């Protein structure tokens, strides 16, 4: 599949209602992969913005009542237009308010993909879990021993939401109700860079717009692209700063040959 070629040919315009901690990183990663980002969280602007965009990414990392209303209104408009909508439930499970916001979003908006770390996805699937703010709890991490349990609650959440479930971590799991992909791409040093998960959501959205024929494979490609870019950048990084810059460089240099050769992926029937 020519995932990256199609993104660069399509140049999808992606609207982000995202957190203010990582907005610049998200914009640069989106540009590097060949898509175009736009950010606005004013409700009167964001709803009309859907008319010219190809996708909407909603990230609840830095919440307030004003932006929640914008997320719901923009999400409904994107659904009405048949656009791709991706949810990053950043920090869900950490507080009752975040849980309430996610429940409202799921009631009002249909998502094509929900991308989160293992603790966030477990919280959404009502599976017992702990949380460490916006980071996954160490006790929750996916391993080769427990991955079939992870498949089960990912499948459960897919059936509840109709969205492909992308769980990022040391082992990434991307699933619907029939199949799950696992990927070993990435490196542990990436967790020291703020925003890698937020960037991934944007790349997933771009991949979904450009490769509409299969949501599961397109979402999987989005996850692997970011992980592989980080893995390649880490080979020459001198520390967190050069890894951060190198990640964007590798995204901008990424092509489908590099993706195919570098992807560490397995598929399971679930």
Beta-strand percent range: 15-25%
Tell me the distance between the termini: 23 Å
User: How much is the average pLDDT?
Assistant: 94
- Order of neighbouring strands in the sheet with most strands: 2-1-3-4-5-8-9-10-11
Structural class: alpha/beta
Shape: globular
- Number of structural domains: 1
Sum up the structure in keywords.
about 270 residues; nine-stranded mixed beta sheet; 11 helices; globular; alpha/beta; UDP-N-acetylmuramoyl-L-alanine:D-glutamate ligase
Explain how this protein is built:
It is a single chain. The chain has one domain (3-269): 3-Layer(aba) Sandwich (UDP-N-acetylmuramoyl-L-alanine:D-glutamate ligase), CATH 3.40.1190. The chain is built from eleven helices and eleven strands. It has helices at residues 3-10, 23-33, 43-49, 65-81, 96-108, 118-124, 147-161, 196-210, 215-234, 240-253, 256-262; strands spanning 13-17, 36-39, 55-59, 84-88, 113-117, 131-132, 135-136, 164-168, 172-175, 179-183, 265-269. The strands form two sheets. The protein has a nine-stranded mixed β-sheet with strand order 2-1-3-4-5-8-9-10-11, with helices on both faces. Strands 6-7 form a two-stranded antiparallel sheet. Helix 5 links the parallel strand 4 and strand 5 (113-117). Helix 2 (23-33) runs parallel beside helix 8 and helix 4 runs parallel beside helix 5. It starts with a helix and ends with a strand. It is globular. It is α/β, with parallel strands linked by helices and 270 residues long.
């Amino acid at each position: 599949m020519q995932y990256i070629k199609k993104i660069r040919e399509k140049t999808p315009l992606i609207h982000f209602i995202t957190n203010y901690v990582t907005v610049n990183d998200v914009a640069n990663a989106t540009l590097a992969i060949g898509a175009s980002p736009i950010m606005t969280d004013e409700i009167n602007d964001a709803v009309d913005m859907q008319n010219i965009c190809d996708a909407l990414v909603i990230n609840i990392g830095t919440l307030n009542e004003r932006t929640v209303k914008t997320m719901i209104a923009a999400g409904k408009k994107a659904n009405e237009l048949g656009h791709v909508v991706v949810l990053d439930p950043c920090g869900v499970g950490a507080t009752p308010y975040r849980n309430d916001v996610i429940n409202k979003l799921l009631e009002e908006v249909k998502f094509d993909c929900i991308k989160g770390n293992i603790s966030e996805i477990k919280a959404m699937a009502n599976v017992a879990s702990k949380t460490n703010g916006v980071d996954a709890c160490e006790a929750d991490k996916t391993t080769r021993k427990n991955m079939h349990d992870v498949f089960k609650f990912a499948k459960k959440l897919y059936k509840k939401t109709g969205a492909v479930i992308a769980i990022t971590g040391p082992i990434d799991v991307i699933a619907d109700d029939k199949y799950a992909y696992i990927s070993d791409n990435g490196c542990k040093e990436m967790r020291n860079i703020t925003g890698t998960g937020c960037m991934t959501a944007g790349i997933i959205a771009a991949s979904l717009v450009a490769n509409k024929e299969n949501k599961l494979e397109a979402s999987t490609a989005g996850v692997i692209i970011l992980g592989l870019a980080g893995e390649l950048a880490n080979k020459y990084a001198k520390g967190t700063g050069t890894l951060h810059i190198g990640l964007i460089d590798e995204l901008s240099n990424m092509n489908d040959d590099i993706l195919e050769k570098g992807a560490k992926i397995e598929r399971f029937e679930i």
